[in-house]
Specification:
Layout lengths: L8 H16 L2 H53 L9 E6 L5 E4 L11 H8 L4 E5 L10 E9 L4 E9 L1 H48 L19 H50 L4 H32 L7 E4 H9 L3 H6 L4 E5 L3 E4 L1 H18 L4 E8 L2 E9 L30 H11 L3 E6 L3 E9 L1
Parallel strand pairs: 7-9
Antiparallel strand pairs: 1-2, 1-5, 3-4, 4-5, 6-8, 9-10, 10-12, 11-12
Amino acid sequence: MTPTAQPAAGTTLGRPRVLGRWHRLPIVLRLVLAVAVTMSLVLSGAAGLVYWRVEQALDEQLDADLAAYSHDLRSDLLTGRKLSGPDGSAYQVLTPQGKIIEASDLVRTEHLLNGADLRSVAAGASVRRDIGGLASLDPHTLRLRAQRVKLPDRTVIAVAAVRRGHRDEALRELLAQLAIAMSLTLVAASYVGYRTARAALDPVERYRRRAASLADGTSGVRLPVPEDRDDELTRLGHTLNEMLERLEAASERERRFLADASHELRTPLSLLRAEVDVALHRPRPAAELTDTLRSVDSEVQRLIDLTNALLDLEQLGGTDQLARSPIDLPELIASAIDPYRAAARREHRNLSVDVAPGTVNVDTNWIHPAIGNLVDNALRHSQGDIHVTATADDGHLRLTVTNEGPGFPSDFLPKAFDRFARAEASRTSPGSGLGLAFVAAVVTSHGGTARAENTTQGAAVSLDIPC
């Protein structure tokens, strides 16, 4: 079996390690480094383009001078004139074997062509090359051109050369100037990038410090958001302020819920303890013990009902997606209300229903008990007849439960759907104050609204649910 090649450790670990170090850097430093690297690339590209254009222009001029001098040298050889050249030039006349026949003082003893150059020129080609590099400070760097010249009595190789000193010096000066300009520009761009990043992130840091004060239990904290702007940071500030308001409201609801729940649980538990203490205080007849057990059973049932209501509300609040399904509206209303008809008859009250034909798309597991809670509340806390109406049109289920009686107290209406909210008149009646809160939670989870109001006949609770 051929062993599987394992990637090098540097390949698999190097990149995540570098990325990890990069992401651990402060944002300002990352922005400045990104600006510096980007500007370096841009400046390097611009400097390279400038250098290439200047070098090309200088080379064109130098090549033109070399071509003119090479032509003059060839003409002088053919006509037999004395060989000469402009200032800064040099020449050599060689045999095809490379022996110097005649040369200017600058290159009298130096062989300008190597063996490969000699063979190329002897074969009829023209050779052009440089002697010395740009980094060399030798003023006698040359650019030469060699060509074959057929004289009447022999064939020679004419080498014309011009000095590159001025050209190289100009390019070195250009490189130095470009390096200085790039350095200054890079420093300035990095500083501007740093100041810009700081100006952009300082509000975020102020927001962080103000929001951190929430950990100390400070209430009413709001971020300082300017009202005369509409940029990304301003919108972030408004969003965070809205979030802080919601957090404070949720915290307040939680404190109120814990206080109400503790109160509601404390009462039945205290009664249970009192009943048991009385029963244990001294021997009791069987009839008294039976009454005590009935009372205990009533309080236990009250605790169970309260616990179940709290669990239902918690479960509903954690439901991410409702299991909607189509159901016939008259069938839904009948199945939700029929269990309460016997209780209505016992109290000699009329429970009437007016339902229009139609189909609704709802989660019956939640809508069914919500409708039942409305009817149960009407039976518990009102007198007279109860009337239920329901219609399904325009994609909405509209349901109203009305009852005859004095209606809701005016100070109770704004908080009718709050948890443990109970009108003073109903404090002594059975119930936990979670019925309408459960109804509101079900309706809200369906994307609908619930409304409690008083009518001329009594109280009414209306539901509007998209279906």
